[in-house]
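# nightly structure sweep
# worker-07 picked up a monomer target from the shared queue
# config: single-sequence mode, recycle default, output format = structure tokens
# input follows
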Amino acid sequence: MHPTSPAPVFDRPAGHRFATLPVAELGGPTWVPVVETSGDWRRVLLPSRPNGATGWVPGTALKTAHTPYTVRVDLTRRRLVLERSARPVGHWPVATGDAKTPTPTGRTFVMATLAPAKKTPSPIVLPLGTHSATLDTFGGGPGTVALHGWPDTSVFGKAVTHGCVRVPADALKALSRVPLGSLVFITA
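# output follows
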């Protein structure tokens, strides 16, 4: 769902308000996955700490859409699978977080699509709605974990990152078509 105006976020339907979901984040529209519905209320994943945080948003002034895509990252196998309608449409070896800065596990989502001015190391960066458990900040940001490309293919299949998931060029091309708000499951 996408709020068409800043949406109040509550701890339960009609409960205590603790946040506001903005219309836009990182230069694009805010899309978050709905994980539960209760009457006119929608429980959504939030792009904030702690990882996996959820909140309830009133179902008014919301735009909804459905995405058939799911991204699955297996940290043990260092493999990413892109699914469409629960069927694999691509799988690739990836680089994941090292022992000191592991990639966080859990349910998250594609929060934004960024096209950095400097195309190296990646022409597209896909920030996720999850954050590093060991880094409070990284690269001037809040330690957000992302899917992104990497020019040196020797890293794929290894645990060498600061928590992000580095993907091959063809995986990045496929992932760039995944709608914002699509679920990402990261497992160990």
